[in-house]
Amino acid sequence: MTFDPQSLCGWVDDPARHPMAATFAPPLSQVAPRLMGADENVYLYRAWKEALGDYPAYVAQQIGDCTSFGSGHAVDLLQCVEITIGKEPITYLETCTEFIYGVGREIAGMLGGGDGCYGTAVAKALVDVGAIPRKLIGPYDGNRAKQWGARGVPAEMKTAAAPFKVGSAALITTLEELDASLANGYPSAGGFSQGFTMRRDANGCCQQSGRWGHEQCCTGRRRRNGRREYLLCQSWGPNVPDGPLTDDQPNFSFWIDETAMASILSQRDWLTFAKFPGFERRPLPAAWTTKDFI
Question: Which domain of life is it from (predicted)?
Fold first, then answer.
């Protein structure tokens, strides 16, 4: 295929992200130790279908604002999890990516020319400022994202975002923490520099290839041939990468090997989100999990 992922990414490996990541320390294993020890296949992405009837028809990013898509999609999926298993009723409202992109860049001190941000800044935007429902702004507009990323978000939008703050975010640095996050219904997202092939193989997987500066969200985990694999959801529109789909995965996703995922987490820009304060241990529907390994 002709799509060039390097032309539409937007994760910036800014040294300033490291002290910001420290504001989310300690990582999940210390924040919520009771969650640790999970070892099942988790198809958390199926919550989208259960709550909405089908997977979201996400459009492709138009500028280098992937950080807002990765985190925004994770928050969208978290809403669907809460709709299905949560203790408090909520209404699904797709997240406006342009808003969290603009606020994230403001928090990161990146307002001005150029595109891009990093995961911890966007996560801080969601926790400290909040999010705007897509329906209040209208369809995704790359020009709006560019403008808010350069000049900041209007003050009245920040006021309107306050009721939609994410309750908690925690740093994920190990596969065990990522497993625990997924097994308890908490999607995660983050930025990294590892690239992948742009066609899924027969198992729905893409292999490590080249370098990106990109953010995606993680929505599933399975064990195949004795190794863990993780499902990443991207922001390049439907069926990118192309190729076969397995385990009912969305067409905007691909599985990666545990070695690649561990390398991504080592860059310390990956965070998991909870709708409410704190991370609770909670069972998932049987249709989302299995202990049968291939």
Answer: Bacteria
